Amino acid sequence: MNLLSSATIFSFFTLLSRILGYFRDILIAIFLGASIFADAFFVAFRLPNTFRRLFAEGTFNAAFIPSYTSAKLKNQKEGKLFADHILSLLLLVLLFIVTLAEIFTPFLVYLIAPGFIADELKFNLAVEFTRITFPFLLFVSLSSFFSGVLNSNNKFAAAAAAPIILNIILISSILISYYYGLNIAKQLSYGVTIAGIIQLVFLIFFTLEFYKPNIKLIFKITPKVKFFFRKLLPSIFSSGVTQINILVGTIIASFQSGAVSYLYYADRIYQINLAIAGIAVGTVSLPVLSKAFQSKKYRKVSNIQSKSLQLSLLFSIPASLALIIASEEIISGLFGYGTFSPKDVEMTSKALMFFGFGVIAFALIKILSNFFFARDNTKTPFYISSFIVFLNVLISIVFFNYMGFLIIPIATSISTWIGVLIFFHYLMKKNYLLLQKKLFSSIFKILISSAIMALVLVLALEKFSSYLTYSYTYKSVYLIIIVGFAGVVYLLSCYLLGLLKIKNYKSN
After folding, report:
1. Number of domains in the chain
2. For the chain, which terminal residue's Cβ has fewer other Cβ atoms within 10 angstroms, N or C?
3. What pTM value is reported for the model?
């Protein structure tokens, strides 16, 4: 298997989904801006969407794939039985969680948005929308199971394409609601749950080639199943530390008017790189890394680790520089329309810039966690991730009164970088880090290409600054051209330095 080819396929569908997601968010920004309806919907959407990212974007795979792979290596029947047991238990647990959430929704909203309690209308709207959106958790979590089966068989396209359904449904909800004069935020909430159902059916269809589900009402909890569920919570927490930090940020930001929306829009921008540099690379590398380790092919393990880190940095370093340099132009070009005011652009762009400093770290966390997960070690990433979240919360709370919501992206970036350093420390301590020497020369080449791209971007932004102002109608067109040109320069530099050779990314 070629990591670059597989990551490219995964990234293509992920990128398409994100583009549609941006179009969706542009429409939300135009029609809802940073209003109480926007804040209420984003809180209602934050919980199931966080779980979508936690489960669907590689985190569930971290616990499932190594165990499922191990069972299949013994024999196909054992692999099938293990999957049936996991699916049955997962369904039971999810039904219980969703039922409880529907009953105690006001308490749940209070937990994730305590600042809303001061505004009765905003709080009640958030409760109503959350009750509508929360069943999405059931469908997206089951979807993650079927995605895990597909990924275990090195089939990544369908799992990567599934989120496209969510964005198509939500875009349709906005347009239909506007046309018929309906409550846009409420219809968006219904759209979330409907999309979850369709997404699940879509993935089941593609999975049937490899696995035919058999829900067991009476099942035996084997030692392997127990081991899986013991790993699941730590792996969710470890792999999803960035999403957990954002959720924590939402809680704290709820005390400042409009801050929830500012963080949401900023989060949407940097997540596209995380999806490629962290999630895509991590998702396609974990199955082959698990097989290589279980087969004791340590040379192959070294190769996969090195190529995974190289690919992650290849995508994340230039993205980090671009977000830091062009944060205001990006936010203005994408969202600076309708009710989304110049002040909204200013606040959101500042948040994006500070998130930009952490983009590389966010991606590396995904990759480094896999180096533990492939060895069925979920405890160490769990402890490190717990410390990252604790540090993030501590910094955010201590400095919130002085800096407002902007401390949240700052704290998230700082705590994650410290987490990366701790990850490297423990990987070396446990002799889990088996890197090739040529990785370091590749990183140097990536830095050179990124520096060239950054220079081109700065000069282009300065040259066309008058076409990128808030009031200029076609600013998004110029933004796309400038960013696209800088991207082409980066890829050309990488090509000339030999970083884009397909053969260099083979996992064997």
Report:
1. 1
2. C
3. 0.73
